[in-house]
Prior knowledge:
Layout: E1 12-16, H1 24-36, E2 41-48, E3 51-52, E4 64-65, H2 71-75, H3 88-100, E5 104-109, H4 116-126, H5 131-134
Helix pairs in contact: 1-3
Amino acid sequence: MNTPAIRVSERIFLLDCGRKYFTPTWIKKLINEISAIGYNTINIHFADLMGIRLESKRYPWLAGGDHTLCSFGRAHGMPENNEKYLTQDEMRDIVVYAKAKGIDVIPSLDTPGHMTYAIKKYKNHCGRDIGASYHKNG
Length: 138
């Protein structure tokens, strides 16, 4: 029995940059690959429990990552703070590149949940623990 092909308008690939840094060159190669197999959208997820991988002009100390916030990172001796992130200019370039390949870009930030990294960076930078403000019992 032949199953008819399902036609969908959006074919989205999710790239999680919050947990791991990817270079602009690597992301462009991914865009080439997903374009070639029929995807038309990439969701670039910038923030998660372990990092915010997009430059902030207002809060420059916030960008980067911290692999000690996951059991995998701690267990494998990952560096405490991996400061790699995409700059706003790099992201603009990626969006232009993606558009030329027929790929839309959807940026995403996982908030207000998954704020462990942001709360830790705020405490380190500002000297105040705001974690209780986000905790279900706080």
